[in-house]
Specification:
heterotrimer; A mainly alpha; B alpha+beta; C alpha/beta; A: mainly alpha; 3 helices; B: alpha+beta; Beta Polymerase, domain 2; Cytochrome-c3 Hydrogenase, chain B; 5-stranded mixed beta sheet
């Protein structure tokens, strides 16, 4: 049962996405000019290279967000089966949240949440 | 006054003086730098406010007129003129190290007349494209000399500047790039919802922090000053509303007052009272829109809708009396074009308590909001000395502690007959500029109350000749716009059209102050600071 | 072929001032070989398209304030579905040009117009955008944006009242409703 469900889901996903692209390609009007390929910057041509080394602060914000987002994702399945797991599960999840909270406190203390 | 005359003569013995209300001196160009240095640094006089710098083409010579005021003594004012006979390659000394506002003014004179300024830090055209041929405001300019080119502006065009330095070998002209090779430069505007018009800012960024801003103007430069030289005086009035369109009535008032002063025409009191009331209504409408747009830039579209709702009530009053919503077209030379509508006073009397109630709502909605406070407080400081040096007048200058209200310094129309306070704050941050506009709305409501009860009966218009010719000479009038000190300079040779018209734009100095305030702040703060300064671009570009 | 009465829910067909324009437009399209038989599906699609046109605001000067009044609460263009003003041309359907166009701004306007995706329309608002307006004697002003880009609707005034701008928008809706969906609309020719 599980294998066929997985296969059906996989095939439906591929068919829907590829189908949407293909139908759009068939019926959409086509018209292109040189300006359409250029980036939009308030009507003025852009200056310089876009692939520049960028500030590491952006990376820090993104990583912190990702970690706490993944933590939330892990909390959802526990919440669903919370009653079955009982007190044991509660203690384990508290440890999990505590470790991440320690990480947050460290980041806060070190000033990673401010933009330097 | 005589003191200043003697000092100028001691430094420049060949200086000549003209008969005028303000002391006017024509100083030869080689001695000019010493005179200005002395006037700026002298402890008694301290002329620290350069109000306007006007380029002139006097036929054989090209020159500049400087209007200097002292902020510590409001009676101290002087007008300096200097010229050069070289029309091929005119050069004068720059004063941009003494007064920061001269930086943009001198670039404007270079753009329109071709005068290069020695020791200016970065000379390039201000409004027109770098490859524009000719200098438009010279008298021998050919109007068809430049055709439309649809080429996009290149990077060299936008980033090259020149300096003319006086070294031991003589004058050396060198060019340099404004931004380094590796700098990350982003264009904000001209087509952008938060720039309050078509302002093009090239911003050099380091992550989120702003390192340097280079504003580019001219995307709405309509050549109003050149057009005025071909029109008669009543025809000029139609162009004035469209300069700073949010204070259109006040601009029109300024030109009418200037022409009436030159003709020595007495305006009936009734006209003066009504003109003052319309000015104050325009001020309230402009501040409401400024407040609404600033809040919309922060993300609060509700505040914008509330501001516009109340502004519509003022538009109704204008439409009933004047005929137009935004462009009221009501003041003319001599008074008003027609008498006020019978409902005018009734509507104003209903509006005043309504607006007071709404202001309380605005404070509850927005000013108390912790997110708004967090974004506005601690950001964008402009000190009093910087405000004076950059010429930042109006509510933004008053928020930094500089008392510059023209209604108090040189009262005109009915302002000397009423009581009102000039709102001043000391910190000079974004929050202060925000609060001062709402406080000014309250003061304007008080002014309206006093005037509404006392409009005298009588004529609404003085008789003028059919063709208006001003006597020869230079005439100037200052008015307190919603954004600051709006000045009109008319130089006449006795014809029915002016010889030269210059509008002193309060918004140009506001936009020039954007660079020093925003260095080191983030991009989001740049938008907030621009909103709090509240400039309007057609006023800059004219 | 007779033009079927285009139905705009807020105004009757007889209240519009120039219905002959639409009939001439259809004749012109016929002459150039475009088939203008509007079927039921086209009708439905055009109803959806004309009621959710997203403007690209290009406000340069005074008319821009009347644009803000049109968007504000009293004369509200959200009633027509035009509320979402996109600032990027790639996401916009119609470009409102409010205000004067000068030589320095012309390449910017052309670039923005080229970057918009088809089908795109242009509404010129204010006398400056139509013909240069009060500034036509100037050395730096373009006498009308139709020298650079094709325009669909002109709204005269200096500045036009917000109600006039709404009337112009409704004329634009009628023009959109005439178009057949599965072909690109005819771009008007610049003379």
């Amino acid at each position: 049962m599980n294998e066929s469900f997985f296969l059906v889901a996989f095939v439906t996903a591929i068919v829907l996405v590829v189908g949407a692209y293909w139908i759009a390609k068939l019926i959409a009007p086509h018209s292109s000019n040189a300006q359409k390929g250029e980036p939009y910057e308030c009507g003025i041509p852009t200056r310089g290279n876009s692939w520049l080394p960028f500030k590491v602060g952006y990376y820090l914000f993104a990583i912190l967000f990702l970690m706490f987002d993944v933590e939330t994702v892990f909390l959802f399945p526990w919440a669903v089966v919370m009653h079955d797991l009982g007190t044991n599960g509660l203690i384990m999840i508290t440890f999990f949240i505590l470790i991440l909270a320690l990480g947050l406190a460290y980041a806060w203390k070190k000033g990673a949440l401010e933009w330097k | 006054m005589d003191n200043i005359r003697e000092r100028i003569l001691s430094l420049a013995p060949e200086a000549t003086f003209e008969e005028s209300q303000i002391l006017t001196a024509m100083i030869p160009s080689d001695k000019f730098r010493e005179v200005t240095l002395h006037l700026k640094n002298d402890k008694d006089m301290q002329f620290d406010y350069l109000q306007d710098l006007i380029g002139m083409d006097w036929g054989e010579t090209l020159g500049v007129v400087y209007r200097l005021f002292s902020t510590s003594n409001n009676q101290c004012a002087v007008v300096l003129k200097t010229s050069t006979a070289d029309r091929e390659n005119p050069q004068l000394f720059s004063v941009s190290d003494l007064w920061d506002s001269a930086n943009l003014y001198e670039r404007e004179v270079y753009d329109f007349f071709g005068i290069n300024f020695i020791n200016h830090p970065g000379m390039r055209r201000l409004f027109l494209r770098s490859n524009w041929e000719g200098y438009p405001l010279r008298k021998d300019y050919n109007m068809d000399s430049n055709h439309l080119t649809m080429e996009n502006q290149t990077i060299e065009e936008m980033e090259t500047a020149t300096t003319l330095n006086l070294t031991s070998e003589g004058l050396v002209n060198s060019s340099f790039q404004l931004f380094g090779e590796k700098e990350y430069v982003v264009n904000i505007g001209p087509q952008h919802p938060a720039t309050h018009g078509v302002l093009h800012l090239r911003v050099s960024l380091d992550g989120e922090t702003v390192k340097k801003i280079d504003p580019h103007f001219g995307y709405i430069h309509r050549g109003v000053e050149k057009m005025c030289e071909g029109y008669t005086y009543p025809q000029i009035l139609h162009l004035t509303d469209r300069l700073d369109y949010l204070s259109g009535t006040m601009n029109r008032h300024a030109v009418c007052l200037c022409v009436e002063k030159a003709l020595q025409l007495e305006i009936p009191e009734r006209a003066q009272y009504v003109r003052t009331m319309l000015d104050e209504l325009t001020r309230i409408a402009s501040h409401l829109l400024g407040w609404g747009c600033m809040c919309m830039d922060m993300g609060s579209i509700t505040a914008f809708v509330y501001g516009m709702r109340d502004r519509e009530k003022i538009m109704d009053i204008f439409e009933e009396t004047g005929g137009g919503r935004l462009m009221c077209n009501y003041s003319v030379i001599g008074g008003l074009s027609k008498d006020i509508h019978p409902n005018f006073l009734k509507r104003i009397r209903e509006f005043i308590p309504y607006m007071r109630k709404m202001l309380k709502e605005y404070h509850t909605l927005f000013t108390e909001n912790p997110i708004a406070r967090g974004r506005m407080e601690g950001v964008g400081y402009l000190t009093r000395e910087q405000a004076i040096s950059y010429g930042v007048t109006g509510p933004s200058g008053r928020a930094s502690g500089w008392s510059n209200d023209v209604r108090k310094i040189e009262p005109y129309a009915a302002y000397d007959k009423i009581n009102f306070k000039e709102m001043l704050r000391t910190e000079g941050g974004t929050f202060d500029r925000y609060m001062i506009r709402l406080d000014e709305i309250l003061e304007s409501l008080k002014i309206l109350e006093q005037l509404a009860d006392g409009i005298p009966e009588g004529d609404y218009r003085a008789k003028t000749k059919a063709i208006i010719k001003l006597p020869e000479g230079d005439f100037f009038q200052r008015v307190e716009n919603a954004r600051g000190d709006f000045g009109v300079y008319i130089s006449s040779k006795g014809d029915k059209s002016p010889y030269r018209v210059k509008f002193r734009s309060p918004c140009m100095t506001l936009a020039s102050a954007l660079d020093p305030i925003t260095r080191g702040e983030k991009i989001a703060d740049l938008i907030m600071i621009g909103g709090s300064l509240d400039y309007v671009i057609p006023c800059i570009d004219r | 072929m007779e033009v079927k009465k285009i139905h705009i829910p807020n105004m009757k067909h007889e209240d519009f001032n120039d219905n002959e324009y639409l009939e001439k437009y259809v004749e012109e399209l016929h002459k150039n070989g475009t088939n203008v038989i509007i079927g039921k599906i086209d009708d439905m699609i055009n109803w959806g398209r004309s009621n959710s046109v997203w403007p690209l605001l290009f406000a340069t000067s005074c008319c821009g304030i009347e644009c803000m009044c049109v968007g504000a609460a009293r004369c509200d263009f959200a009633r027509f579905g035009w509320e979402v003003t996109r600032n990027s041309p790639r996401q916009a359907d119609v470009m409102f040009v409010f205000g004067t166009l000068v030589h320095k701004m012309a390449p910017v306007l052309k670039r923005l117009y080229d970057q918009m995706a088809e089908p795109k329309y242009v509404i010129a608002v204010g006398s400056c955008a139509i013909s240069g307006g009060p500034f036509k004697d100037s050395y730096h002003v373009i006498k009308g944006i139709n020298e650079i880009i094709p325009v669909d609707v002109y709204v005269p005034g200096c500045p036009p009242r917000p109600d006039a701008i709404l009337y112009g928008m409704m004329q634009m809706q009628r023009k959109i409703k005439l178009q057949e969906f599965f072909k690109l609309p005819e771009q008007p020719v610049i003379k």
